[in-house]
Design a protein that fits this description.
alpha+beta; Aspartate Aminotransferase, domain 1; 3 helices; 5 strands; YdhG-like; DUF1801 domain-containing protein
Length: about 120
């Protein structure tokens, strides 16, 4: 089983730094979340348990940015308009730099996802 750190080591330092900062925030808001690396999907998932149906959010590193995705993003309040995507349920926030993670609206979305995920 791959650790999040080992998984993220395969990315450029600037992408890895953003992903680690997002991970720190997710672990702070969802300290009891089940964390799992999904190598096939190239994501780190967080949820109430190990099943896909338990997932609340995920971190998806890309070549030059990182997405923080929400499994039920369409059902979350987003007064700041951070969420992107066109899927039936999934929405994500795209981060190009680590300082963008400090936006208080990101924490607010994670807290709403925590409540929606029944933590």
């Amino acid at each position: 089983m791959t650790t999040p750190e080992a998984f993220l080591d395969t990315y450029k330092p600037e992408v890895r730094d953003v992903a680690l900062k997002i991970r720190e925030l997710v672990r702070n808001v969802l300290p009891d979340a089940h964390e799992s690396v999904q190598p096939g999907y190239r994501t780190i998932t967080y949820g109430t348990g190990p099943r896909m149906s338990d997932e609340i959010c995920y971190i998806a590193p890309l070549s030059s940015s990182v997405n923080l995705g929400f499994q039920y993003g369409t059902q979350l309040p987003d007064p700041n308009g951070l969420l992107r995507g066109t899927g039936r349920l999934l929405r994500h926030i795209k981060f190009d730099a680590a300082d963008q993670v400090d936006n208080p609206a990101v924490r607010t979305l994670l807290q709403a996802a925590k409540i929606h995920g029944k933590f």
